[in-house]
Specification:
Layout (H helix, E strand, L loop, with lengths): L17 E5 L3 H12 L3 E6 L10 E4 L1 H7 L5 H7 L6 E6 L4 E6 L3 E2 L2 E2 L1 E4 H14 L3 E4 L5 E5 L2 E6 L2 E5 L1 E4 L7 H6 L6 E13 L19 E7 L2 E8 L4 E9 L14 H7 L5 H8 L6 E8 L13 E3 L14 H19 L4 H31 L3 H6 L10 H4 L3 H18 L19 H7 L15
Parallel strand pairs: 1-2, 1-13, 2-9, 4-15, 13-19
Antiparallel strand pairs: 3-8, 4-5, 6-7, 10-11, 11-12, 14-17, 14-18, 15-16, 16-17
Helix pairs in contact: 1-4, 1-8, 2-8, 8-9, 8-12, 9-12
The chain binds flavin-adenine dinucleotide.
Length: 465
């Protein structure tokens, strides 16, 4: 066991053990709460001095709200400040309505939420503090280390040691290099997104957009063009509007949540489009617009380090494109899975628990990652003949296997089989993917090669029925 004067002895923290978590995004906070609920001592290290209010809308599917329903009365508060649009309306770029697709607001009694990322992250952070989880904010983890019986991180010359480390450090994860042994940079997806969240009252000035300020129901409108889609989203509870415009990444935009966007450039992308979305864009306060590069990574099978005491979760393991609507939800499913496995296997079997976690999660998240690309492709390389026959072709998938899933139960139920597969090297058959689904590994390269092909139904692995 590595120790020095400042170190915390990992095995000295009660019978359940101590877990260090890196990153206080949705993945890190959710994992901290799930482990605290199961009796572990948890400490979270986060690079930001205070939790950011950056970001706009984040979808929390019922597969995630099911997990959050165990976190005091947080879910009620989240519902009160989130949107739950009853439908998504799709238009072509001229404004012709193509489809009004009902959006379920719940599955199995658990809500589907479209929340403000900063507001909801703040609620989860407060819940974590109430539970007694310790936070070290403003501390960037510089390196990771591990031995057979412990693992830890270095921050500002200090070494923190615990029974295990869970790295929830997002798409630019430094832990990923430690775990897989090579530096892999995230890849451009070929697209960037102008995105903004601003007070709804800004839309009151133009008669074309004024009716949006009088809405009593949340609104989700999507306009489709070739290689471009635009979204107008209105949350009545917070009286806010969100606009996205996904466009070809020709400007070498940096991936940053603060990279300013140019309103003039954004309007050029939709020149000649439906006057309503153009008017809504013209109302954006320029200082509230960012241009955000859409990055992604190949799915990787290895999330767990050499000794089995460090694992990746959330975007560090499996970053999702926004069109999946599942980035946060899959991070929260990870949390429930790890909580159940460590609860069942205990601190004496952490490497087995983490490797079982990989088995339980890889094929499902590889598919939800791919689903984000598929939806974008449906919208950008639209097969208009298929749409003429069946406009439902454009629907965003919200399949039952995804939205009704109980990650915690699945982990408890299949823990023994996953551990046996880890120990004996026998195959593990995932049952948290669509019935009949046969897993295929894929890479960003493969998807980019398909990018220009026109969207046909057989092209997709996730049906949008
Ligand atoms: C500022 C920001 C705004 C976002 N806004 C949106 C949005 O509007 N809509 C949307 O769908 N998705 C948004 N996302 C992405 C979304 O939050 C994630 O896809 C998803 O919730 C999975 O979360 P995560 O916890 O795995 O990763 P993240 O949310 O990226 O969290 C990672 C955390 O780790 C911290 N961290 C990174 N490196 C270190 C280190 N070395 N030491 C300590 N801490 C470290 C980061 O500061 C961050 O808080 C945003 C992400 C960020 C960082």
């Amino acid at each position: 066991m590595a120790t020095n004067g400042n170190e915390i002895n990992g095995t000295g923290f009660g019978s359940r053990g101590k877990i260090l978590i890196v990153g206080a995004g949705y993945g890190g906070l959710a994992t901290a709460i799930e482990l605290k609920r199961k009796g572990f001592h948890v400490e979270v290290v986060e690079a930001a001095r205070q939790l950011t209010t950056q970001g706009d809308i984040i979808q929390v599917g019922s597969n995630a709200s099911r997990v959050m329903s165990n976190w005091g009365n947080l879910l009620e508060q989240a519902v009160a400040e989130s949107a739950q649009p009853a439908r998504m309306t799709l238009f072509d770029k001229s404004g012709k309505k193509l489809l009004e697709a009902p959006l379920p607001t719940e599955f199995s009694g658990y809500p589907v939420l479209y929340s403000n990322r900063g507001l909801l992250q703040r609620l989860i952070f407060e819940e974590a503090k109430t539970l007694g989880i310790e936070f070290r904010l403003g501390k960037r983890v510089k390196s990771y280390f591990e031995e057979d019986d412990c693992a830890g991180v270095e921050i500002d010359g200090e070494r923190l040691v615990a029974d295990a480390v869970i790295a929830a450090d997002g798409i630019h994860s430094a832990a990923r290099k430690h775990v897989i042994g090579i530096q892999q940079h995230p890849r451009s997806s070929g697209f960037a997104v102008y995105r903004t969240c601003f007070p709804l009252e800004c839309l009151a000035k133009d008669p074309l957009t004024k009716p949006f300020t009088e809405l009593k129901e949340d609104l989700f409108h999507v306009w489709l063009g070739s290689d471009v889609h635009a979204i107008l989203f209105i949350t009545v509870a917070t009286q806010s509007a969100v606009i996205f415009c996904t466009h070809k990444d020709t400007y070498e935009v940096e991936e940053s949540w603060t990279n300013p966007g140019d309103l003039h450039d954004m309007l050029n992308v939709v020149e000649g489009w439906d006057p309503i979305i153009c008017a809504a864009m013209k109302a954006i306060p320029p200082e509230k617009l960012i241009d955000w590069k859409l990055l992604w990574r190949d799915p990787i099978r290895q999330w767990v380090s050499r000794t089995g005491r460090i694992t990746l979760v959330g975007d560090a393991a499996h970053p999702h494109l926004p069109t999946s609507g599942q980035g946060a939800a899959q991070a929260i499913e990870d949390a429930a899975t790890i909580g159940a496995l460590l609860d069942k296997l205990g601190k004496d079997n952490i490497p087995d628990a983490f490797r079982a976690f990989e088995k339980l999660r890889y094929e499902r998240t590889s598919l939800t990652q791919r689903m984000g690309w598929e939806t974008r492709h449906r919208w950008h390389q639209t097969d208009w003949e298929a749409v003429a026959v069946n406009p439902e072709f454009l629907k965003m998938p919200q399949p039952m296997w995804l939205y009704t899933f109980d990650a915690e139960k699945y982990a408890y139920d299949r823990c023994d089989e996953a551990v046996e597969s880890v120990r004996k090297g026998t195959p593990f058959i995932s049952t948290n993917t669509p019935e009949g689904h046969v897993h295929e590994d894929w890479t960003v390269e493969m998807m980019m090669a398909l990018e220009k092909e026109q969207a046909k139904d057989h092209f997709y692995r996730v049906a949008n029925k």
